[in-house]
Design brief:
The protein is mainly α. 90% of the residues lie in helices and 0% in strands. It is built from 2 helices and no strands. The longest helix is centred in the last third of the chain and has 78 residues.
């Protein structure tokens, strides 16, 4: 019996390539989200550090400088929150693209498995027929 060949092997390979690309794109989007979250943590740490350093300090210039710095941190935080919202949208879009790629790949892999099982059954049947034929000749 001839060797098993899956006629859609090239399509399956292409779908796997697309899936790998989608995984890479999702990883990049998640990395952007993580970076924004890290920056938000740094802002919170800076705010806490300034607040702790100013505890008990009543110097007017220091209080004004702290206030201005806190305003700057608040502006940075707001900008990062906007970026985070956008990054989450992008991540969800990339996640959906990956889901679709996985569906397409899974469908082709199941088809390949089904065809391979059918080929194996046919090969087993053909082998049994040959053995019966040889047995009957003896």
């Amino acid at each position: 019996m001839k060797k098993f060949t899956f006629e859609l092997e090239n399509v399956l390979e292409f779908r796997n390539f697309e899936k790998q690309q989608a995984e890479g794109e999702l990883a990049k989007a998640i990395a952007v989200e993580n970076e924004i979250n890290e920056n938000l943590k740094k802002i919170a740490q800076n705010y806490a550090a300034v607040k702790a350093s100013m505890k008990g300090n009543l110097d007017f210039e220091d209080v004004m400088a702290q206030s201005q710095y806190n305003n700057l941190l608040e502006q940075q935080k707001e900008e990062l929150l906007k970026q985070l919202t956008q990054a989450k949208l992008v991540t969800e879009q990339k996640r959906e693209v990956l889901r679709e790629c996985m569906k397409k790949t899974t469908a082709l892999e199941k088809l390949k498995e089904k065809q391979l099982d059918e080929w194996k059954q046919a090969a087993d049947y053909e082998e049994a027929e040959l053995l019966d034929e040889v047995k009957n000749k003896l």
